[in-house]
Design goal:
Elements (H helix, E strand, L loop, with lengths): L7 H21 L6 H20 L12 H21 L6 H20 L4 H5 L2 H6 L7
Helix pairs in contact: 1-2, 1-4, 2-3, 3-4
Length: 137
Amino acid sequence: MERGPLPLNVHAALEPFIGAVLIASPWIFGFSDVDEATVSCVALGVIVILTGMMTDWRVSLMRVIPIRTHMIADYTVALLLIVLPFVLGFSDNGAATRFMVIAGVLEAIAALSTRWDEREADEGRDTRRHGRSRAAH
């Protein structure tokens, strides 16, 4: 997989924050009156949080989404953030469009910068499954 400078665990730690910012953005940046933008940001924020919670890495609640699928989901969220203002017809709202395009570019940079190393995702698994470290084996 791709090798960027951002460790996978840092990426995982940022996911809840990114999702929360996306969910709250219509009210923070003053475009909550634009229904399409509000629904888009809230839905994409929930997707970011759920994807992070369900990815097969060490900081996950449920390990059902492979790392590669998570990576593709991040690229998809980035693309959607950039194109939805134009596709859904609210690109005339400057606040919503600026936020979503900037957030999409930042999401793409985060995804492109992440070191998608499955070995890093595997670190610490024995500790959680068995209650002891690998060294104790």
